[in-house]
Design goal:
Elements lengths: L1 H49 L2 H13 L8 H9 L7 H6 L4 E3 L6 E3 L6 H32 L3 H34 L7 H12 L1
Length: 206
């Protein structure tokens, strides 16, 4: 019986390891597929930008909408496509839309004017963290009161629903604070316009 238990546990352990490996393999495959799709969309947008841009701008907007929720101007679209490595930061640019924009020199991201000062960003952090604590606390209190006192099915449903909504609002505020925090690292990236990259490569080859 002891041998059977040992063999059973061994098989169970191997099955668990195999399951984890299979899951990780699936996740990596999905990530690679996602990158390939992004590259295909990038090529499509590049093709449309090589043609008269004003005419193709609605199609370009539709293509970008497959990747991000932020609406880009034509100049922003051209910058992300034609500036080396900028496309890699497209998702961050969308998530942090409230806080960052492309610099006038087109070589980096910068904070929008409203959040250009440290005091303004600190105040925003305090507001978002405060909103998270407030909404999450209200949601938890509603759920606790509903659980302890309500015997009516409809009232219980409404209590849990409103409690969940408040908790969700708190999570949204916390995520927004995360975007503000991430903006600090996003603006540190520096980019070279395509023409300057080409001129540098020509000089190095001489």
């Amino acid at each position: 019986m002891e041998y059977i238990d040992i063999v059973t546990k061994l098989i169970g352990g191997l099955a668990a390891i195999f399951g984890i490996a299979l899951t990780l393999s699936h996740l990596f495959a999905q990530k690679s597929t996602g990158r390939l799709k992004k590259f295909e969309i990038y090529k499509e947008i590049k093709t449309y930008l090589d043609e008269p841009s004003d005419k193709n701008f609605p199609v370009i907007c539709a293509a970008f909408s497959c990747l991000i929720s932020r609406n880009l101007t034509l100049d922003e679209s051209k910058w992300f496509i034609n500036t080396p490595h900028a496309f890699n930061h497209l998702k961050a640019y969308s998530d942090q839309a409230r806080y960052i924009e492309i610099s006038e020199k087109k070589d980096s991201f910068i904070y929008v004017e409203k959040y250009s000062r440290n005091s303004a960003r600190l105040y925003e952090h305090i507001k978002l963290i405060g909103a998270y604590i407030l909404f999450a606390s209200i949601g938890i209190i509603i759920m606790m009161v509903t659980y302890s006192k309500s015997d009516n099915l409809f009232i219980s449903f409404m209590g849990y629903l409103f409690g969940g909504i408040f908790i969700l609002l708190g999570i949204v505020a916390l995520l927004q604070d995360g975007h503000l925090s991430s903006a600090r690292s996003t603006i540190k990236h520096k980019f070279l316009p395509f023409k300057r990259v080409m001129s540098k490569s020509k000089k190095s080859s001489i």
